[in-house]
Design a protein that fits this description.
Layout lengths: L1 E4 L2 E4 L8 H8 L18 E4 L2 E4 L12 E3 L12 H8 L9 H14 L5 H8 L10 H15 L3
Parallel strand pairs: 1-5
Antiparallel strand pairs: 1-2, 3-4, 3-5
Helix pairs in contact: 2-5, 4-5
């Protein structure tokens, strides 16, 4: 199958029942997306499919054919971090690395949907991403500060 991932067309050998997270991780070697719960409730495997958040652990790879897939590897790179990545580092939103990629992708979807969300909107949008390492305050602050930076207030 062919998948459009992070602006590139990639070939993968996968069965019709292969999940998107498995194809990303094991066929395409894009290991930033993590699988934690395997049932689509924790948010660790969040990727963007045509700009919408999806749980890649319950999305068949075949469903993603023809769509634009964005993973954490497509968010920024070592030389030029995405403002969200910078904010997560600066404001302490980055935790152990299991949920952080999904948190970042959910935040990216939020800011593309609403570039200036309120704190309540951030909380509502991010509630599908679970984290055991924090009390969420730094994650909420990181998203809010990234939105402010994009507006020029930071």
């Amino acid at each position: 199958m062919q998948l459009n991932v992070n602006g590139r067309t990639l070939e993968a050998e996968a069965t019709g029942l292969a999940t998107l997270v498995d194809v990303l991780r094991y066929e395409l070697d894009l290991t930033g997306t993590k699988e934690a719960c395997g049932v689509g409730v924790c948010g660790a495997c969040t990727v963007l499919l045509d700009g919408r958040m999806v749980a890649s652990c319950i999305t068949l790879a075949a469903q993603a054919q023809g769509a634009q897939i964005q993973t954490i590897e497509g968010l920024g790179d070592r030389e030029l971090l995405d403002p969200l990545q910078e904010s997560f580092i600066t404001d302490g939103g980055f935790q152990c690395g299991i949920c952080t990629p999904g948190q970042l992708m959910a935040a990216k979807a939020l800011l593309e949907h609403n570039p200036q969300p309120t704190e309540d909107e951030i909380k509502h949008w991010m509630m599908g991403n679970l984290c055991r390492c924090t009390g969420y305050y730094q994650i909420i602050e990181s998203v809010a500060n990234a939105a402010n930076a994009a507006r020029g207030d930071r």
